[in-house]
Amino acid sequence: MMNFDGLDAGMGDYPPSLHGTLESSMEPSMDPHLNPSLLQGVELDPDGLTVTVPESVHLMEGMFSELHSAVSEVGIPVTATHFDVQEEMLWMGNHRGHATSFFGPTMGRFSSFQVHGTDDIRHIQSLETGVLFLSKCNLKCYTRGGLVMFDYPMDEGADMHSLLVTDNNTLVMGGLQNYVSEVDLNTVQETQKFTVELPGVAIMRQTSRFFFCGHTSGKITLRDLRSFKMEQEFDAFSGSLSDFDVHGNLLAACGFSSRGLNGLACDRFLMVYDLRMMRAVTPLQVHVDPLFLRFIPTYTSRLAIISQTGQCQFCEPTGLANVADIFHVNTVGQLLMSFDVSSSKQALAFGDSGGCVHLWSDAPEVSFNDYSRETDFPLPCLVETLPQLDWNHDLLPLSLLPTPLTSTEPLLSDWSSVMSTPSPRRAPPVDPEILRTMKTVGFIGYAANPRTRPRNQVPYKIKDVELDYDNYNQVPESPIGRDEEPHLYMVPKKYRKVTIKYSKLGLEDFDFKHYNRTLFAGLEPHIPNAYCNCMIQVLYFLEPIRCLVQNHLCQKEFCLACELGFLFHMLDLSRGDPCQASNFLRAFRTIPEASALGLILADSDEQTGKARLGRLIQSWNRFILTQLHQETQEQEGPQAYRGASSSSLGSSGESAIGKLFGCEVENSSLCRCGKETVRSSLTLLFNMHYPEQNSQEKTIKEYEFAEILKKSICLEQSTQAWCENCEKYQPTVQTRNIRCLPDVLVINCEVNSVKEAEFWKVQVEYAVNKALQKEANEPAKPKEAPPMPTEWCLDGEDFCSMEGFDPRAEDLRNVWIPLTLKMSISKSQGLEISSWPEGEELSAAEEAEGAALYDLVVTVSHIQDTRTGGNLVAHIKVGETYHQRKEGVTHQQWYLFNDFLIEPIDKAEAAQIDVSWKVPAILYYSRRNYHTKYDLRIKNPIDASVLLTEASLARKQRKSHATFIPLMVSEMPQAGDLVGLDAEFVTLNQEEAELRSDGTKSTIKPSQMSVARITCVRGQGPNEGVPFIDDYISTQEQVVDYLTQYSGIKPGDLDAKISSKHLTTLKSTYLKLRFLIDTGVRFVGHGLQKDFRVINLLVLKDQVIDTVYLFHLPRKRMISLRFLAWYFLDLNIQGETHDSIEDARTALQLYRKYLELSRGGGNDEVRKVLKGLYEKGRQQDWKVPDTDTGDGQGAAVFPSVMGL
């Protein structure tokens, strides 16, 4: 029996249609929780049962009465109910984690699914795209049909109770712990965690002014919408809080009072607060024990108060409660566990402990929302009856016969991907007349309509389009969708060309970690001539080269060895973040030999794929080795800079490149007359030469790779040459022999035509067949257990290679290149080359005879793509020293380097070649343990002399025009000293972008910037704020935009013939900054991340103090230096143009101001000041008022904030 103590005795006079049956003298039912009268005419099923309402029930307009009831799971308490705010649906969740939805006022079942295996569902919230379900330690989002959209687990120990969607993309969650989490629904990641007092937050509400948080201690706190800081606190109940709601200027709460030793008692007084005066008004006495309450505003601010036993009372929050306003929910002896009100305020939902949901309404035609969207229902079966088939008819189509679909047998129509190729229909080219008359404004082109085609119609000629596609030479119109190209179906995704997708933030929100989870640094591909990125990585991972170029420094403005040294230093410092080779490639473009060899690509050739990258990278390989050989053997010496003494290595004329790659060769020419001419020379690499095939031979013979390599090194060919004895051109036989073995054998594969590619293909097939035959003849070996993964292996990554590799035949597919070669030179037999088992060593006798083992360490391949020219990738065997420096482990491992994509791979994959898409270009074999003979120490060649006074390149520059005072010897910076820095830039190439159909801009290629001015000012001492570097950087490349409004650079400032500025080379100023970085100074500036990126410097985070981040609140806009200077310093800077000296000084002053604020009040004081800053910025629209400097306008701004 229910307890109706305190209820008016006249309740029994009301008709049962309004408040249900109060008597409970019923026979025992099937289930102790159910009334058998509810089960009449209802069929029970394992999924649940539906409860119908007798048709005789008539609803009285304006008074709430029961409309329908439904059961999801019998006997399982309903812990959460929720009216969908988008569609006409009612959701419920129960104690066992199961969710069910019902459609419309008839409560037809729509969907039912399990949300959590063990925990109860505590809160349900509908969104536009799905429904959120909150359990104790988990937040899940499902579609309304029951498909998982995301699963967000909480921290260990979380006990969540409520959630609140603050806007379209953000929600906050609270529970019985000391924090409230804010989660971004777009990224499904926690953005902030706000600290709250224990015992935590159990109920949350929101208005346009505050967050309202209800605590189990009986208190209600009002919190700031942005910072979640507590603004007001109401101590509502002495025991605990049960529920509260907010409407307009009123807050009503119900709860429990403490009764001393007797525990808690339900308080029949509702606490009501006026939010205008922030104080309590007269408490409201009610006639039921309140468990839930909600405002149900219609004409007045009505309150609905619900007790756990099912009594419901309506009253006004400012008046007296009337007993006649009580009705009763027929729960059949069960307790109410959950309650919700629809957004239209026309329907109420109650969930009880017996698994039943009761829908009450004040109108027969109820709608849950004012404007609900249409609900998508599953399509019904449209086939009612099968057609009659006439077996005697000769033309009866067999497709009419229904056949069962089995998973074991494929359908005849299921064509395999090998037998079918997608053939997309390409858009026709733009009318040439439009391109001819087009005028470009910014990145948008405008042209008159030539009216050669109907409006909004594009004619397609299928045959012509297919022909164009076969010979496609243009860059794709849009970067969107480039990931999946139909002709790349056979190319693994990691080998495809990677592109950076730029947003309005540039590269800040691009996830490079998705492509590279190692600690090695990739290289960005968007710079002109960055096709050589893979070869730069090859040179970096050769330890002697890495040490050689970092020890090298000379006075040449454009020295590739110096620039490689600077770049390798950045690769050493990086912890997985990509670097740019922009300065190296800038110097590379100025080398006349590179241009003469055709190594400098135009932008159009690089984008449209006209460049033959395989041949190009082999020419680049020859060029770079020759260039480094020349630059490192010059008399100036590797450490000669500004008069420093030459090293012994430089003065001797011997190059480490020659010692590493050089091989002395003997070229012999034998004329028909018998005269032989012998010449000696040094070669740094060898080209592969393949045997000529006779016209009678239809098949290509089988060759060993070592055999082809020997014939290519010891080359013998017939050609026409000048004979001094005959004094005319004669047929001569030219023979090449080598006198010594190099430490690193470099091979250009020369697979430049179909003939060479066919030769490789056939040899690979021979090698595979031989491996399969050998495996079939050998007895099966027991498979060894794989070794444990080492520390460098990433957790959860299945591509980590194991060093204990077993070269099975299936792993040797497409492998013709041996992983190890044995090479020796004997007087009797000359050069001998043979394949060698990788794990074995030479005997002492073989070593005494001069034999050596060479391991494959590099393969560079051209990935074929007929549309864009493909891309180049490198497989590199990274040695132990690199792993030791980066990851602290002693290990050797093969990696794939594809620009900024880096992945560990198996060594068999490095040697695998499939000429249909992966064409070999370059091979490096290194002598085993060759590096022990080289000095691998790096002595930084950059010293304090780079900061000394230097002459300007400008002819008109005078000392009286000097804008800086160089550092004295006594002022040389020390570790930890402050240096104010600012840089200005000019544009070399404009940004390439496209305008999408939805009006948004997509950046295809960013603008190419070049540093034009670098300023450093002293950060301490008597001369604080005085510049010691103010260099204008001379450039030989064409400047398309000087950006004078933002940079202050004018045409002519960078021209040595007419400039009056202190003009220097980029290398000279770069060395000054490198010295400051190596010394350990801390740079202070505004937006230094972009400055260092364009200068091409990598600076550790603890050496950078960026004011753009010091004065910034999370998820807010970045603030300009001009506004910060006006607000905090009362300075009006950057009036007409920018001046880097002024900007650097201002950044230093702002840092001093930040330190002053931090010392004065700590982080809380800084945060309060920043809130005032953003408030002032919104008022000013982030524009500085037009006032003269020092008029006191700015000085009045900041003190007012300090007084908050």
Automatic annotation (TrEMBL):
Q: Provide the alphabetized UniProt keywords.
A: Cytoplasm, Exonuclease, Hydrolase, Metal-binding, mRNA processing, Nuclease, Nucleus, Repeat, WD repeat
| Enzyme class, UniProt record, top EC level | hydrolase
Q: Which residues form the USP domain?
A: 521-928
A GO MF annotation of the entry reads:
poly(A)-specific ribonuclease activity
Q: Which reaction does it catalyse?
A: Exonucleolytic cleavage of poly(A) to 5'-AMP
Cofactor(s) the protein requires to work: a divalent metal cation
Which residues take part in binding a divalent metal cation? Answer: 982, 984, 1091, 1143
- Record localization: Cytoplasm, P-body; Nucleus
- Asked if the Swiss-Prot or TrEMBL record annotates the protein with the keyword tRNA processing, the reply is no
- Regulation (activators, inhibitors): Positively regulated by the regulatory subunit PAN3.
- Pfam families xrefs: PAN2_N (PF20770), RNase_T (PF00929), UCH_1 (PF13423)
**GO annotation, biological process:** mRNA processing; nuclear-transcribed mRNA poly(A) tail shortening; positive regulation of cytoplasmic mRNA processing body assembly
* Gene Ontology cellular component list: nucleus; P-body; PAN complex
What is the free-text note on the cofactor?
Answer: Binds 2 metal cations per subunit in the catalytic exonuclease domain.
Q: Known PROSITE patterns for this protein?
A: USP_3
Under the subunit heading, UniProt states:
Forms a heterotrimer with an asymmetric homodimer of the regulatory subunit PAN3 to form the poly(A)-nuclease (PAN) deadenylation complex. Interacts with PAN3 isoform 1/Pan3L and isoform 3/Pan3S. Interacts with ZFP36.
- State the family named in the UniProt similarity comment for this chain: Belongs to the peptidase C19 family. PAN2 subfamily.
Query: What information about domains appears in the record's comments?
Result: The linker, or PAN3 interaction domain (PID), between the WD40 repeats and the pseudo-UCH domain mediates interaction with PAN3.
Q: What does this protein do?
A: Catalytic subunit of the poly(A)-nuclease (PAN) deadenylation complex, one of two cytoplasmic mRNA deadenylases involved in general and miRNA-mediated mRNA turnover. PAN specifically shortens poly(A) tails of RNA and the activity is stimulated by poly(A)-binding protein (PABP). PAN deadenylation is followed by rapid degradation of the shortened mRNA tails by the CCR4-NOT complex.
Kindly provide the name given to this protein in its UniProt entry. PAN2-PAN3 deadenylation complex catalytic subunit PAN2
Organism of origin is Solea senegalensis
| Organism lineage string | Eukaryota, Metazoa, Chordata, Craniata, Vertebrata
